[in-house]
Amino acid sequence: MRLTQSFGSALLLVAAGVAQATSAWGFADGSLAVVAKKAAGTVKEKLNQKTPLSTPVSLGSTDTLKLILTATDNGDGKRPHQAFLVLQEQDSGLEAPFPLTVKESGKAAVQISHKDIPVQLLAATKPLKASVVLASFGSSQGLNTPVFDVKIETDASAPAPAYEKPLRYGKKPEIHHIFRPDPTSPPKVISLVFALAVAAMLPALLIGWVVLGANLNHLSKAIGAAPLSHACFFGSIVGMEIVFFMYYISWNLFQALPVIGVVGLVAVFSGTKALGEVQSRRLAGER
Amino acid sequence: MRSFFSLLACLFVAAVSALSTSGNRLLVVLDDVAEKVNYSKFLADLESRGFQLSFETPKSESLALFRLGERAYDHIAFFPSKSKGLGPNLTPNILVDFLNANGNILVTLSSGVATPTSLVSLLNELDIQLPVDRTGLVVDHFSYDASSAAETHDVILLPPPGPVRPDVKDFFSAGAAASEILAFPRGVGAALGASELLTPVLRAPSTAYSYNPKEQAEVVDDLFAAGSQLSLVSTSQARNSARFTLVGSAEMLQDKWFDAEVTTADGQTAKTFNREFAKRVSGWTFNEIGVLRVNWIEHHLDEAGAANESSPSIYRIKNDVKYTISLSEYSWTHWTPFTTPAADTLQLEFSMLSPFHRLALNPDPAQSTGDAAAYTAAFKLPDQHGIFNFKVNYRRPLLSNVEEKTTVSVRHMAHDEWPRSFVISGAWPWIGGVGVTVAGWLGFVALWMYSAPVKGRAAAGKKTQ
User: Fold this and answer.
1) Residue B380 has what pLDDT?
2) CA–CA gap between residue B71 and residue B55 (Å, rounded)
3) Transmembrane segments in this chain: where (chain A) (predicted)?
């Protein structure tokens, strides 16, 4: 088998220069026409099965592409079973076959316009590769050869051919949550300046009081009259502030409330006596 | 000693009768049970893999796919049948019910007999179109077996099919020698719809086409499909992972094409890959390969010094968490660690209605074992409280679906989890103000109680009152 094959191929080589290969499909009288609706722009090209057209043919949205050829088996016109014009998208390799209507004599023709071409090919950016496939049953070698390129010209005024990709299971684009920005603070210098300004108010206040004649001259008198009450009352006011401070630093409400209760009671009981002492000084005309 | 031997025997039996992951009851529907001699190698291969074959004809009265509401078989294999329909026991409705009940179906066609209407309807349901008149023949004048079909060109030769996309696992051609070739004799090609559940396994070569041998013997006036649009072996996996396979040529499963010798158009002889291909196609259909299992899922707080509780039901916003999922893949006889194809990734979604995060899960060798692979992802929870799901929705062609949802609550910050006000520099003037007020208040109380009036000035003050 292999021997006969190699013999055959040798024969083929010999015959190649003289005529077409023994028993192989081909075509003759190939011609391509792009007919515009307005008869002005008809383009005609002769087709050759050995060399494809060098420049792409452009096909507008109202144009019709007509391909006419005569299929030959070993040089004689004959009808093949398979006579397709195949348009191929160059990037994806997607193909669309267009069967030629073939007569008994091998004369074949096909017409293609935009509405015949699948939308995936219409949306192609590169020219489509058109090949002719001629083959049939039996031992004749089939022909599958590129003959020309078609550039699809879409109508600028019409909407572009919309093609929605079908859903395919695969990995999806990643999503990373965009977090809200963190709260910001003004520059520390500004905060510090204003904090110092606020803190400076305390000495300003105290100095103001002293200038106006504030003093603690009655302290000894008051302590002398009601030592326990005054100590407890003033102590409870300071203590209340300490409780508030502790609440701010670490305590929770349930730790703070009982202590506030105790300190408050002390303030009420010691306060009546201490403030009574203050009143007695006022009544005595000392204030 | 004897018990030891019987134990060994048990182990041996278990090892030999490797089973499909979803049962081993296989119904083989043949027109005539005597036809099974044609497929004896294929059926013997199935039997050796642990399937219990039951043979029935479509006409059989006792044939019932469901018994007491449960599937009576786990898988069905249809061989070509000359009957027009398949009778009342195999209506398209029953077959769809069978798929819905997680049963798997393998359908084989032949160009010699018209496909039964019942199967055509089932195929339509799955968005697979057959040629009109239920008859078609795929020929390729460029790639045929020159020794058996030199004149008719209807035994197509193809290389074993690679994966349909680069990110899909290669189940059907892996390990095939370059010289091995698939023979597809006298088969029917189908055209697949746009459904995402369909996957072509074997596509026709670009010069192949389908025609009706009865009506288009002379000339192909109306082309059904050609080239790679023509699917010779197609699969469909339902959302419940039930599998359906359409083999266009029943003859490719026959004994004569198993390990046969074919001659390509350029005169080379080659061995057919059909036997191994038939094993893989039936193995895929009957859940012996490409079946995924989730072993366990775990997530935990991934923060320094935090309690290391496993899979808590509540997290706080902006917590760092780590999610781990362990997956196994069944491969003929045993579970193996599942590795994603190189171009594919397993993804984790953290979603409330829509995903907030969709992140790649990376292999975690530390937690992987001999039969399970762990995949893990660490990320920061979004700054949005609510009920969220950790979701792994892994749907890929030819692999059974994995859809795992773990619900957790994400709470907002508690009042004592914010930074303290003294840490915030913007609060310093306000804190200073509180301190000054406190000190001023204490000073005022002391002065009010213990200050003696200034003489003279007090009198002047009184006058003005």
Assistant:
1) 94
2) 16
3) 189-212, 224-247, 253-272
What is the rounded radius of gyration, in angstroms, for the C-alpha atoms of chain A? 52
- B132 Cβ contact list (under 8 Å, min separation 6): B212, B224
Q: Measure CA A97 to chain center.
A: 35
User: B359 vs A167: CB contact, 8 Å cut-off?
Assistant: no
- Chain B residues 387-406 within an 8 A CB cutoff of chain A: 395-397
CB of B459 less than 8 A from some CB of A: no
User: Shortest Cα distance from B216 to chain A (angstroms)?
Assistant: 9
Of chain B residues 423-452, which have a CB less than 8 A from chain A? 424-429, 431-433, 435-436, 438-443, 445-447, 449-452
Please tell me the distance in Å from A86's CA to the nearest CA on chain B.
9
How does B376-390 read in b/e, with b if 16+ C-beta sit within 10 Å? bbebbbbbebeebbb
CB B116 within 8 A of CB B299: no
Q: If you write DSSP's letter for every residue of B118-179 in order, what string do you get?
A: HHHHHHHHTTEEPPGGG--EEE-SSSB-TTT-TTT--EEEEPPP--SSTTS---SSTT--TT
pLDDT tens-digit readout, A226-274: 899 999 999 999 999 999 999 999 998 999 999 999 999 999 999 999 9
In degrees, to the nearest 5, what angle opens at C-alpha B336 toward C-alphas B332 and B338? 115
Of A102, A138, A169, the CB nearest to B219: A102
Q: Which residues pair with B246 in a beta bridge?
A: B107, B234
pLDDT digit string, tens, across residues A148-205? 888 888 777 777 777 788 889 999 999 999 999 988 989 999 999 999 999 999 999 9
B60 burial type by CB count under 10 A (0-12 exposed, 13-18 middle, 19+ buried)? middle
Judge residue A195's burial from the number of C-beta atoms within 10 Å of its C-beta, 0-12 exposed, 13-18 middle, 19 or more buried. Answer: buried
Interface contact A81-B218, CB threshold 8 A? yes
| CB–CB contact A176 B357 (8 Å) | yes
Mutate to test the interface with A, among B138, B451, B454 (most CBs of A within 10 A): B451
Most B CBs within 10 A among A5, A82, A120, hence the mutation to make, goes to A82
The residues in B 349-368 lying below 8 A from A, measured between CB atoms, are 349-350, 355-360
Name the H helices within B206-330. 274-285
Say which residue the tokens 């010069």 belong to: B207
Judge residue A53's burial from the number of C-beta atoms within 10 Å of its C-beta, 0-12 exposed, 13-18 middle, 19 or more buried. middle
Structure confidence by residue, pLDDT tens digits, B106-131? 999 998 888 899 999 999 999 999 98
Kindly report the three-state secondary structure assignment for every residue of B60-75.
CCCCCCEECCEECCCE
Identity at A168, one-letter amino acid code: R
Task: Please state the length of chain B.
Answer: 465
Residue A123: pLDDT over 90: no
Angle between the B40-48 and B274-285 helix axes, to the nearest 10 degrees? 50
| Coil vs helix vs strand at B286 | coil
Q: How many CB atoms lie within 10 A of CB B151?
A: 9
User: Strand pairing partners for B327?
Assistant: B294, B373
Please name the residues in contact with B319: beta carbons below 8 A apart, sequence gap of 6 or more. B301, B303, B380, B381, B410
- Mean pLDDT of the residues in chain B: 87
Among B211, B223, B425, whose Cβ lies nearest the Cβ of A188?
B425
ipTM exceeding cut-off 0.90 for this assembly: no
A135–B425 C-beta distance less than 8 A: no
The owner of tokens 């192949």 is B208
Helix (H, G, I), strand (E, B) or coil at B446: helix
For residue B205, the chain A residues in CB contact (below 8 A) are none
Token pair 């469901």 is found at B66
Candidates A97, A198, A237; nearest CB to B226 = A97
